[in-house]
Amino acid sequence: MIKQEFCYSQLNDLDLSVTFYSKQNDSSAKATLIYLHGGGLLYGSRDDLPETYCELLVEKGYNLLTVDYPLAPEVKLPTIINCLREAIDWFLKNYQSILGLERSDYFLFGRSAGGFLSYLLSARYALPEQKGLISFYGYYDLINPAFSQPSSYYNQFPKIAPLTAQALIQPEPIAGVSINERFSLYLSGRQFGNWLSYLTNSPSEKETFSLTDTELAQLPPTFLAHSSADQDVPVEASRIASNKISNVTYEEVEKLPHDFDGDLTKNEGLNVYHALIEWLDKVLATT
């Protein structure tokens, strides 16, 4: 597996980059997974997907394109979405000339907040080259009451006052920030129920960035995965979505934390990725 890095856009003085994971000298990949990382939209890194899964996907014929996006609250959701549209456009413009691919087929793949972004882009920036949507423990709306109320789970941790957390906010846009650097901003937002204020310009934008039932029904073929014991994003987000999306495959694991695929000592994560690859092959066989 080889990794190549490219800059797809700039925001002010911030370079926004992608990493392309592929087989050496192999232009015949079945499709490319455009991957969006998690981190509550406040932190995270494009290359956070464990190498085990990257290697498995590439070995099975799928390239990965992992994408930077500017983080909130330095920018808000409209800017984040615009940058990700630029990333998709960059892929479609350069898949042959720069990436050396025969096919422009892609799937949007996100974990947690990246799943949310993948839902939004799949519904509102639908392009013929997109063959499907993959959301691991993601969500499709911001009007879920759990996101606006103090979280009982996060309130088990020492309280971080909003003013203390807000000292981490930078004067200019940033991307690719580690969990150690910014988790306390997310933690405080969930403890006090003000996380969404970091993402949107006004409370009414919560509805703007929530998919309707009609939008859910019109999504492309979708693969969802979630843990029944998710302490961060309620599992109901994927259960409800699986009933409203017309073409959906849903894998639910039991009694594991939010990012259930992060623990490589457990088989559940790897099992779900094998199920994902089967699903990918099936979708491509029918399109």
Automatic annotation (TrEMBL):
Protein name: Alpha/beta hydrolase fold-3 domain-containing protein
GO molecular function per UniProt: hydrolase activity
Residue ranges of every copy of the Alpha/beta hydrolase fold-3 domain listed in the record: 33-260
InterPro entries: AB_hydrolase_3, AB_hydrolase_fold, GDXG_lipolytic_enzyme
Amino-acid biosynthesis keyword on record: no
Pfam families, per database record: Abhydrolase_3
UniProt keyword Hydrolase, yes or no: yes
Superkingdom per UniProt: Bacteria
Alphabetical UniProt keywords: Hydrolase
